[in-house]
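Lecture 7 notes: from sequence to structure.
We start with the chain below.
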Amino acid sequence: MSAATRESVSARRERLLGDEPGAFAVARFVRVTAQKSRRIADLIRGDSVENALATLQFAPQAVAENFYKLVDSAAANAETTEGLDRADLVITTVLVDEGPTMKRWRPRAKGAANRILKRSSHLTVVVQPREVVQAKLDAANIKNSKKKGGNR
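Predicted structure tokens for the same chain:
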């Protein structure tokens, strides 16, 4: 399904992809801190889907399992809704946002209490075909070379 035949577009898709081909997947309220999630997000950002899945499968961090499911879901969404080839997909965007924090109390000595913060995060993965990503990179390189005044 191309962007021209799409009747209704969600605001999230418009913000993440616009009219470009691709798909995304979102996992909300994941019970892991955003700081820990960003370490894994940096590992897979810009990687192909197959390489990212292999990396995530053997990563020791607990959140790698959540990212594995998310990348797999985004690739399946691209295959199903857009008709794209899974082997040709690249992870273009990985967003890790903070979710709500649950506040708990822990008893301490002399009747005091300490606050325990149980943080959560929202994870988003966007995949696009390799040709689209390459075209964007080429356009950015041409634009940058014109700003610098060409070859010197």
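Points to note: The chain has a mean pLDDT of 90. The first helix runs from residue 11 to 16.
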